[in-house]
Amino acid sequence: MGKTMETNYRKNENTNLDQLVRKLKVKDLNYASLSRAVQIIYFILIPLYAMMTIWEYTDEKNINELIGGGLFIISFFIFILLFRHYYKKYKYVDYSLPTIQMLKNAAERYRPFQKYTGWSFVALIIMDVGLIFDWKDESSVFISQVFFWGLIIIGLLIGLIIWYNKYKPIRDEALRLIQEIEGN
Question: In 3D, which of 78, 60, 53 has the Cα closest to residue 131?
C-alpha cells in the first residue's frame, strides 16, 4: 500500500512539474516577444526624437531643448539595453538544467523587481531631467512632474496587478516545488 501511495505522489509531482514547465515555456516566449517589440519601438523612437530635437534646436537655438532631447535619447538607449537583456533572458531559457536549478531560475525570472529593474528607474530619472529641460516656465515644470510621476506610479501599479494575476501564480508554483524537492 505504501509503495502505491509513493508512486502516485511521484506521478502527481511530475505532472505538476510538467504543467509548470509548459506554462513557463509559453510565458517565457510571450515575455521575450514583448521585450523584442518594446526594443523595436525604442529603435524607431530614437531617430524620430533625435530629428525632432535637432529641428527644434535649429529653429529656436535653445540649448535646453538640445540637452532635454539628448537626455531623452540616452534614456531610450538604456531602455533598449534593458529590454535586450530581458529578451535574451526569456528567449534562451535552459529547461535542461537540473530541476531544482531550473525552478530557482524560473522563480528569479518571475520576481516583480529583479536585479536590473533599477536601470529602468535610472532611465526614468534621466528622462524626467530631460523633460525638465524642455519646459519653458517653472509652473509648467511642477505640473509636468506631477503628471509624469503620476503616470509612472499608475503604470507601476498596473504592472504589479498584471504580475500578481499572470506571473505570481507561476512563481508561487515554482517556489512550492522547490520546497517539496528540498524537503523544507
Answer: 53
